[in-house]
Known about the structure:
Blueprint: H1 22-35, H2 52-63
Helix pairs in contact: 1-2
Amino acid sequence: MIEHAPYAADKPALLADDAFGHRDYTEALLSIVTDEHAPATVGVFGRWGVGKSTIVAGLQERLESTKAAFVYFDAWRYEGD
């Protein structure tokens, strides 16, 4: 019988389970979005698997209690267009 190796799902982790400092990046982004004068553009760059989606998901969650709007654009969805 062939055993399959376990793998991690490609979805954001919860900041409550953060072991890599993603919460710090989320808090820094929150400060930029809520404290700076508009317009502001922020990019989150990094290799696959470093936690970009976790940081952005954490920011979205934190912004729910503010007056700031959050829009997520999935560029991969439109890759072929």
